[in-house]
Design brief:
The protein is mostly helical. 90% of the residues lie in helices and 0% in strands. It has one domain. Pfam families: CsbD (PF05532).
């Protein structure tokens, strides 16, 4: 996980915002909803990445305490 995943998730969220905005401007509800879905998916992926980073940090802390590093 890390900054690459963060950047990809942010890019996906921005793409979704663009679709939502385009759908709003053109009264295309399907495109608007697709954009909202893209945003929700990106936010979900980011939450998973954040949780994985938190678990890795906790595991590293425990490992360091056990090994004395």
């Amino acid at each position: 996980m890390g900054t690459t995943d963060d950047a990809q998730n942010k890019a996906e969220e921005l793409k979704g915002r663009g679709k939502e905005a385009a759908g709003s401007l053109t009264n295309d509800d399907d495109l608007k909803n697709e954009g909202k879905g893209d945003q929700a998916q990106a936010k979900g992926k980011q939450k998973v990445a954040d949780a994985a980073d938190a678990v890795k940090g906790t595991v590293d802390n425990v490992k360091n305490k056990l090994t004395g590093h």
